[in-house]
């Protein structure tokens, strides 16, 4: 029991750090290539690695029957819509704000659960959402003035959080039987890339893409530590307890702003800390309600 708890804590902290680092890696990569050129090849490479591990090394079975539909739907929400909208928003939002917005997922998950399970909307859920959105607004205020963010970018990033929360609830509600976690993650990532491939091809502009070292390092980080390790840790935490899993998103804004300040030299101010505290307060309320 104690070993299990240590495993969950280690998985949660590692997940939060890696998940928060995705915003900075994305911003760096966008300096070199177009949004979908950065993300779509990443999905195919990550899927190839995970499916090779699952089906070649571990000899795990393929999805069958209804499971194919489930991994496709999960990939649509968790990869295509979530990350497709997110990367567009990140072209106009700082890395720190991107990580802060990611932390609001527990509130959206709680809100979506209310409608999913057809339960009355609780005042604490509304208050949590107001606090989180207010926190993001406070943190964003000076960044808007200094051109580190735009209202459209913030709207897109928050919209992507809604699709991610829907995907998380869909994953938790679906019956996966003995389907291996590598198999689920590999196929949902592959489907997500396939759905976005026509968009990447349609928007491709050779002039805007420079396949240099910055692009390579960003993509490799997004493939390995983020798309594979962090997502597998998230699915591991979700399988144990989806409510407790969302608790680890508390750490994302802390890690996110720290990483962004070090790597991207993004400004930190009293607005930053006030915004983070408001978001954490909102997360605490919704976590306590569901705990």
Identify the notable features of this structure and list them briefly.
291 residues
Chart the SSEs and their pairings:
Blueprint: H1 2-29, H2 35-57, H3 66-90, H4 95-102, H5 105-116, H6 123-145, H7 151-173, H8 181-203, H9 213-240, H10 242-247, H11 251-263, H12 270-290
Helix pairs in contact: 1-4, 1-9, 1-11, 2-3, 2-8, 2-9, 3-7, 3-8, 4-7, 4-11, 5-6, 5-7, 6-12, 8-9
Largest sheet: none
Helix content: over 70%
General form:
globular
Structural class: mainly alpha
Total number of helices: 12
Poorly predicted tracts of residues: none
The portion of residues forming beta strands comes to under 5%
Write down the secondary-structure element order: HHHHHHHHHHHH
Mean pLDDT: 86
Cα separation of the termini: 19 Å
Q: Would you mind describing this structure in some detail?
A:
The chain has helices at residues 2-29, 35-57, 66-90, 95-102, 105-116, 123-145, 151-173, 181-203, 213-240, 242-247, 251-263, 270-290. The chain is mainly alpha-helical and 291 residues long. α1 (2-29) packs antiparallel against α4, α1 (2-29) runs antiparallel to α9 and α4 runs parallel beside α7 (151-173). It is globular. The mean pLDDT is 86.
Give a short synopsis of this structure.
With 291 residues, the chain is mostly helical. The chain has helices at 2-29, 35-57, 66-90, 95-102, 105-116, 123-145, 151-173, 181-203, 213-240, 242-247, 251-263, 270-290.
């Amino acid at each position: 029991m104690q070993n299990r708890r240590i495993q969950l804590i280690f998985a949660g902290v590692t997940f939060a750090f890696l998940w928060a680092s995705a915003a900075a890696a994305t911003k760096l990569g966008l300096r070199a290539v177009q949004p979908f050129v950065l993300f779509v090849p990443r999905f195919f490479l990550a899927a190839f690695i995970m499916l090779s591990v699952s089906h070649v090394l571990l000899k795990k079975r393929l999805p069958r029957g209804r499971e194919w539909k489930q991994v496709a739907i999960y990939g649509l929400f968790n990869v295509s819509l979530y990350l497709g909208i997110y990367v567009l928003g990140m072209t106009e939002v700082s890395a720190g704000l991107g990580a802060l917005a990611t932390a609001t997922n527990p509130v959206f998950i709680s809100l979506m659960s209310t409608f999913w399970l057809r339960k009355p909307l609780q005042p604490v859920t509304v208050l949590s959402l107001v606090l989180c959105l207010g926190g993001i607004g406070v943190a964003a205020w000076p960044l808007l003035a200094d051109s580190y963010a735009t209202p459209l970018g913030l709207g897109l990033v928050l919209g992507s959080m809604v699709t991610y929360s829907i995907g998380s609830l869909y994953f938790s509600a679906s019956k996966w039987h003995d389907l291996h976690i590598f198999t689920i993650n590999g196929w949902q990532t592959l489907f997500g890339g396939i759905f976005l491939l026509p968009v990447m091809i349609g928007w491709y502009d050779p002039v805007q893409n420079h396949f240099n070292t910055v692009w390579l390092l960003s993509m490799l980080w997004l493939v390995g530590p983020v798309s594979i390790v962090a997502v597998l840790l998230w699915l591991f935490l979700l399988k144990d307890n989806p409510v407790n899993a969302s608790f680890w998103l508390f750490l994302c804004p802390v890690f996110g702003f720290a990483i962004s300040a070090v790597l991207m030299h993004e400004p930190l101010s009293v607005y930053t800390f006030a915004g983070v505290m408001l978001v954490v307060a909102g997360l605490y309320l919704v976590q306590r309600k569901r705990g």
